[in-house]
Structures are given as C-alpha cells and as structure tokens.
Amino acid sequence: MVGFRVAPMLALEISDLKKTYASGTVALAGVDLKIPAGGFYALLGPNGAGKTTLIGIVMGLVEKSGGSVKVFGTDATAHPQAAKAMLGIVPQEVNFNPFERCLDIVINQAGYYGIPRRTALPRAKALLESLGLGAKLDQPARTLSGGMKRRLLIARALVQRPKLLILDEPTAGVDVELRRSMWDFLQTLVAEGMTILLTTHYLEEAEALCKNVAIINQGKVIRQGQMADVLAISKTNPHDKNFKGGRLEEVYLQLTASDTPNQSLRGVA
Ligand SMILES: Nc1ncnc2c1ncn2[C@@H]1O[C@H](COP(=O)(O)OP(=O)(O)O)[C@@H](O)[C@H]1O
Ligand SMILES: [Mg+2]
C-alpha cells in the first residue's frame, strides 16, 4: 500500500547547493530552497547574487560544486534526462541561432527531447501564434524585435511541455504593455497547472503574481516563504521611524541592505 503524502509536492527541492567558479568566485554558498508545485515563485536578489548560476545548475548547464537538486522528486544528477524533460528554461541571454527561422528554432528544440517533427510542427506553430509570432514563423530570428525574441524563447521553452518553467529575467527591457501580455500568457499556463519560477527586478510584478518568494544575496538565501509572510516581517522597522514596510520593494531593500556594494536596486531611488 502506498501511503498518502502529507507534505506538499515540490517542483524543486534544492539542498545545500554550492558553486565556486574556477576563478574562485563563490556564486552559491549552500542554498536550500523548496519550491512548491503550482503557481508562480519569485527568486529575487541583487545582481551577482547567484540566481543565474542556480538556474544553470538546475538545467544541467553549470556543474555544481556540492549539494543536490530534485525536480518533482527526481534527482537531477542521478537522472539528468528525466529531470530535464520536466524543465523548460527561458534564459537571461538570448541564445538561439539568429539566422535560423523562428519555427525551426522551436521544432529543433523539440527534437532534442525526442519529439518527432510531425508532433512538433503543429505544436510549435500553435505556441508561436499564441505568443503573437504567427506572422514570423518563416523569418530568421535576427529580424525580431527584443520583445519578440523573448517570446520566441518562451515558445521554445514550452514546446516539450515542461511541468516547471524557469524564466530568468523574462521582462528585462520589455515595455509595459508587452510585459503585461506576457504575464497574462504565463498566468494561463499556471491556471493549467504549470509551476513557474522566475527572477525579475520588477518587484511590484513579483509581489502581485507570486505566492511564494525567495530572496538571495551573495549566494545565500536570506528569506523564503509565502509572499504574505515575507511582506509581514517588515511592517515596522525599529531602526528607521520613516520606514513604511509592507511592500516587497521595501522588504527587499531592507533585507539586502548589507555591507555589499553589488546592489543593483539600491540607490536607484
Ligand atoms: N561563468 C562564470 N565564471 C566565473 N564567475 C561567474 C560566472 N558566472 C557568474 N559568475 C559570478 O558568480 C556570481 C553570481 O553570478 P550570477 O549567478 O550571474 O548572479 P545573478 O544572476 O544573481 O546576477 C557573480 O559574482 C558572477 O560574477
Ligand atoms: Mg542573472
């Protein structure tokens, strides 16, 4: 008999994850994260905090120095193919061949996952159409605008129907209107049961969308949990009588206001 699981299903379980690059830079200094299945999860932190490194390790693109990653319970080191099959990634940097046609970029990605072309073709077309790229199927990717390239990356990440979609700063440099339609699109995926992990510097959007959040700084998790609980920690600040608190931006600035100089959001006011 199989017993009922009491704990909630985790999309991602990261334990004591460490990464030191060959240069000596410690990007991750022992990260523990539990990302529940379903809904949006925000991974926040200043530039250089280690977000992209963490995502690279989860995807099997960066070799970890220690720790473990489980994707829906599957160990990503022991079973990399099985883990990868459940993951889609929208990378921070555009990394497709600019001379390839949009449709081919998506179909070829499906090929890496062993999806036959006859299955991939209608799927790729439908995805590109739903992302507003229906008129660009036969165009080389280099002819797309910045926002269109982002959407092409999203189509490519979805073609193998991942359970967990990871977006690394998907809306950086994307205008407000397009950002909004991108979130609408992603919300339909979540409504269908997908888990979405994203990094972003748009804290208002993260606050509005994400039920759960983790804030990392200098390769360490400094706070994680439900958004409401993270916001609640900072309704007051004994050190600053002018502190308003309660908004993610304030909480974030308070939590990341350590002795580090690499804080992208500080000093922006
Ligand atoms: N390929 C690399 N080689 C050496 N250092 C790197 C490499 N990639 C990232 N780093 C360093 O690791 C740290 C974390 O970087 P990154 O994971 O890109 O952070 P984030 O995505 O949060 O901005 C930074 O100090 C960065 O300079
Ligand atoms: Mg990054």
How many strands, what sense, and barrel or not for the largest sheet? Answer: 6 strands, mixed
Instruction: Look up the CATH topology of the largest domain.
Output: Rossmann fold
Instruction: State the strand order across the main sheet.
Output: 6-7-8-3-9-10
The number of distinct β-strands equals 10
Overall 3D form = globular
Structural class: alpha/beta
Q: Supply the CATH class of the largest domain.
A: Alpha Beta
pLDDT averaged over residues: 89
Task: Give the amount of beta strand, in percent.
Answer: 15-25%
- How many helices? The count is 9
> How many domains make up the coordinates?
2
Would you identify the CATH H-level superfamily of the largest domain? P-loop containing nucleotide triphosphate hydrolases
At CATH's second level, what is the architecture of the largest domain?
A: 3-Layer(aba) Sandwich
In short:
With 269 residues, the chain is an alpha/beta fold.
Question: Care to describe what's here?
Answer:
With 269 residues, this protein is an alpha/beta fold. It has 2 domains: 8-86 and 164-269, 3-Layer(aba) Sandwich (Rossmann fold); 97-161, no CATH class. Helix content is 33%, strand content 23%. The protein is built from 9 helices and 10 strands. It has helices at 51-58, 80-85, 102-112, 117-130, 146-158, 176-191, 203-209, 227-232, 248-256; strands at residues 10-20, 26-36, 39-44, 66-71, 74-75, 87-90, 164-168, 195-199, 212-217, 220-226. The N and C termini lie far apart (58 Å). The model is unreliable at 261-269 (pLDDT under 50). Magnesium ion (MG) binds next to helix 1.
